[in-house]
Amino acid sequence: MTRQPLPLLLAILATLTLYRVAVILHLGIDPYVDEAYYWGWAQHLDWGYYSKPPLIAGLIAASTGLLGDSLVALKLPSLVLYPLTALVLHALGSRLAQPRAGFWAALAFITLPLVSALGLFVSTDAPLLFCWAAGMLMLLRALEAGRWRDWLLVGGLAGLGLMSKYTMAAFIGSAFLALLLQPAGRRALTTPKPWAAVLLALAILTPNLWWNWQHDFPTFRHTAEITRLEHRAWNPGELGEFLAAQWLSMGPLLGLGFMAALVGLRRNGREPGIGFLLAFTLPLLVLVSFQALTGRANGNWAAPIFLGATLLTVLWAAWGQRWRLLMVAVGINAAGMVGIYHWPDLAQALGRPLTAKTDPFKRTRGWSALARAVEPHLRAHPEAILLATDRDILAQLDFALHLPALASWNPAGRVLDHYDLTTRLEPGRTYLFVHRDAPGPEITRCFASATPLGTVEVAVHENYRRSARITLLEGFSGYRQPGSP
To answer: In 3D, which of 102, 104, 110, 8 has the Cα closest to residue 324?
Structure first.
């Protein structure tokens, strides 16, 4: 293994990817709501969308265009990009230390609880992490060789990362910090190469900025809303939850190893690459921790830190010859991955039926069955456009039924999702309203007639069901303000 770890690593990554495909098929799940939402974006390619830049939509369009609109095809970008990111970490670990370190860095990353969870679902984190890791590798090469090609690759990867998720902006700041920490980097800053890389990244992002400008910057507004920029307050509880999520995302023993690596910096701080890795780990961790303390922060908002954190932990283990401890840490994470993936099987084997509280995949169940129950009503009224107030219903039914058209009920004109941004109700048209509750008078008075068609219900578990009321709304006459006739 120490002589030729790469062939073994390739075999492990390929096997794990096929295993994840088998798990997806075995679980019998439907898309997570964000996956169905992104699939809808992929049907209408553009330079931007309400909550994210366009790269994820382009990747889904490519994978589903190649393999059809199957669940595996939808998830293919993540299924491919996480193993590719592991291979980049192998290259980074091998360059900074030795092939054995690269091998274990790749295995540690691909079995992180965060990656095990995200690996079953397509999300913007997959291209973000790949671009971040590949950008780190290209920056190392640029510092060593000083070639224009490597610097432009750094800029290109930064631009693609920005087109996936704006978190990639932190990469640019970390890259400049990494350059300032070493003589070769400071010398590079006196040349045009790093500045050309920044300009290339901004050029790649420009179409998305233009799209935002044309649509009154919805992506930036959404980012401000979810980060509570206008409602700052000290919240130590949020910070505690965020830091706990980071530890759990890395795994119990591997997370402790990372903490030990940070504590041991006084002893190992002069080892090659330490400052470089810290520059791509600590600033983002501190930034998002401050965001959690003063607002809110989801557990995956600092996901790129796990690239540097994994490498730092593996290098710490290598310097202290703690290989067995590292193997145990990775083994614990791998066992946890298998346990979560097969939790429904374990529950069945123990004779304990899944419930809403015990099924970790409950949010992905029942949607295709609900869509099949709604479909006869759409066939019976082919002139009707699906209408809903719920993003989940619109996204899931669109993916399951490939709707020719849909619309979001939005009398206030507030843009809270991409459906609000891109759909409008047309005067005189007929709509099939699908909602968890029957439409109230504030809705029915906007139509010439409202005909209840019944309720559809799908049992997911004994205490967990998906249901919707269906109403045929004919002759839309425009939104009416409260109190109007």
So the answer is: 104
Residues 6+ apart with CB under 8 A from 219: 48, 49, 50, 51, 52, 53, 166, 208, 212
The answer to whether residues 419 and 391 touch, using CB atoms and an 8 Å cutoff, is yes
Separation between Cα atoms, residue 430 and residue 416, nearest integer Å: 24
Q: pLDDT digit string (tens) for 102-116?
A: 999 999 999 999 999
Phi, psi for residue 448 in degrees, rounded to 5: -70, -35
- Average pLDDT score, the chain: 93
C-alpha–C-alpha distance, residues 108 and 104, integer Å: 6
Q: Tally Cβ neighbours within 10 Å of residue 46.
A: 15
Share of the chain above pLDDT 70, in %: 95
Compute how many other C-beta atoms are within 10 angstroms of the C-beta atom of residue 106.
Answer: 29
Q: Average of pLDDT values for 32-48?
A: 97
The answer to whether 326 touches 104, Cβ cutoff 8 Å, is yes
Q: What is the pTM of this model?
A: 0.94
> At a CB cut-off of 8 Å and minimum separation 6, what does 365 contact?
28, 29, 30, 359, 460
Phi, psi of 409 (to 5 degrees): -75, 120
Between vectors from CA 356 to CA 461 and to CA 252, what angle results, nearest 5°? 135
Please give the average per-residue pLDDT across 397-426, as a whole number.
95
Task: Give the containing element (helix H, strand E) for 451.
Answer: strand 447-461
Cβ neighbors of 171 (< 8 A, separation 6 or more) are 131, 132, 135, 158, 161, 280, 304
Backbone phi and psi for residue 189, each to the nearest 5 degrees, phi listed first: -65, -15
Strand partners, 467: 457
Tell which phi-psi region holds residue 182, choosing left (phi > 0), alpha (psi between -120 and 50) or beta: beta
CA distances from 395 to 55, 206, 375 (A): 19, 28, 15
Residue 25's pLDDT is what?
96
Tokens for 208, please give them: 């998305």
**Dihedral pair phi/psi, residue 87, rounded to 5°:** -65, -35
Residue 96's pLDDT is what?
Answer: 92
Neighbouring residues of 388: CB distance < 8 A, sequence distance ≥ 6 = 394, 397, 406, 408, 409, 433, 434, 435
- Rounded Cα distance, 101 and 396, in Å: 43
In the chain, the amino acid numbered 381 is: H
